[in-house]
């Protein structure tokens, strides 16, 4: 009787195993096997590892290249920013200087007026002191008069507002007279000189 019972249990276990096998086949699409999957040989493992190393070296080289390009780009941006900042500092007084120049012109006109009396001469002397100090301050900040009188006409520094016939003393295309002074801030023209040119 015990033998029948053991056979019955064995039969039930086989049926249960078949059901599990069918379920596994449905789930994975493969038949479940009792044998373990075959392990790859050492040559295959070495080959796979060599391939992985080659792929990683290639990826590393690409990343190194990207890094170097980004580093070079960053250095270029920093250089450009430094140059921009230098230009801003160099020409920061341009607007102020342009607004001061008409006052300087008025002082020059006042100094050109002849004054016969003592009070006028003292006033003129005071204007001259202010004028000298102002031109010195402008010069210290890179603002200088453009000297064009008697030189060949250059449209970068001068603007011709009148022409006169050329002579031996003033050949063609030479600045004969300056009507209004021109000024530069370092290497940049703030205001061109208004001139009379020989033609």
UniProtKB/TrEMBL annotation:
<feature type="compositionally biased region" description="Basic residues">
    <location>
        <begin position="7"/>
        <end position="17"/>
    </location>
</feature>
<keyword id="KW-0143">Chaperone</keyword>
<feature type="region of interest" description="Disordered">
    <location>
        <begin position="1"/>
        <end position="48"/>
    </location>
</feature>
<dbReference type="GO" id="GO:0005737">
    <property type="term" value="C:cytoplasm"/>
</dbReference>
<comment type="function">
    <text>Participates actively in the response to hyperosmotic and heat shock by preventing the aggregation of stress-denatured proteins, in association with DnaK and GrpE. It is the nucleotide exchange factor for DnaK and may function as a thermosensor. Unfolded proteins bind initially to DnaJ; upon interaction with the DnaJ-bound protein, DnaK hydrolyzes its bound ATP, resulting in the formation of a stable complex. GrpE releases ADP from DnaK; ATP binding to DnaK triggers the release of the substrate protein, thus completing the reaction cycle.</text>
</comment>
<dbReference type="GO" id="GO:0006457">
    <property type="term" value="P:protein folding"/>
</dbReference>
<keyword id="KW-0963">Cytoplasm</keyword>
<protein>
    <recommendedName>
        <fullName>Protein GrpE</fullName>
    </recommendedName>
</protein>
<feature type="compositionally biased region" description="Basic residues">
    <location>
        <begin position="28"/>
        <end position="40"/>
    </location>
</feature>
<dbReference type="GO" id="GO:0042803">
    <property type="term" value="F:protein homodimerization activity"/>
</dbReference>
<dbReference type="Pfam" id="PF01025">
    <property type="entry name" value="GrpE"/>
</dbReference>
<dbReference type="GO" id="GO:0000774">
    <property type="term" value="F:adenyl-nucleotide exchange factor activity"/>
</dbReference>
<dbReference type="GO" id="GO:0051082">
    <property type="term" value="F:unfolded protein binding"/>
</dbReference>
<dbReference type="InterPro" id="IPR013805">
    <property type="entry name" value="GrpE_CC"/>
</dbReference>
<keyword id="KW-0346">Stress response</keyword>
<dbReference type="InterPro" id="IPR000740">
    <property type="entry name" value="GrpE"/>
</dbReference>
<comment type="similarity">
    <text>Belongs to the GrpE family.</text>
</comment>
<comment type="subunit">
    <text>Homodimer.</text>
</comment>
<dbReference type="GO" id="GO:0051087">
    <property type="term" value="F:protein-folding chaperone binding"/>
</dbReference>
<dbReference type="InterPro" id="IPR009012">
    <property type="entry name" value="GrpE_head"/>
</dbReference>
